[in-house]
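FAQ: What does the model actually see?

It sees only this:
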Amino acid sequence: MKKEDKSTVISQIATTVGEYTNFYLTDITALNAAKTSSLRRQCTKDEIKLVVVKNTLFKKALAQLDGDYSALDSALKGNTAVMFSNNANSPAKLIKAFAKSSGMEVPKLKAAYVQEGFYVGADNLEVLISIKSKNELIGDVIALLQSPAKNVISALQSSGKTLSGVLKTLENR
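And it is asked to produce this:
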């Protein structure tokens, strides 16, 4: 590959990393062509971009970005496919579901950069599945804030009926 081509690929990878908030490094080498096509279709359906990269070019692309991505260096060995997503746990759920349906341990999680945190190793898959997205967390906070307000309104409504009953009883006497 020519040097100009490499610099173009590096800048494209850097641009793609910048477009997405999360990415997962996976190993899909054991998949045949049919299963790889199936994985790509599922990725497209789940709004995940799957890209096979050369490790050295990916490292150089990360070096162009702000931040320290050196925690991922140990995972950038062997064949690497990168799953880009704006939803934090979608790729993890896809990895688990696809591995279960195919009867293989592929795709295998090597590492992930999710919500500005690094997760290295396949043992972090369950942790990544349980991570909530930003919108889910906002929904939880709103629900927690609404709960006391609903209790107060409910208490006021029920006490209003009680007060009106007491007033009517006193009026009748």
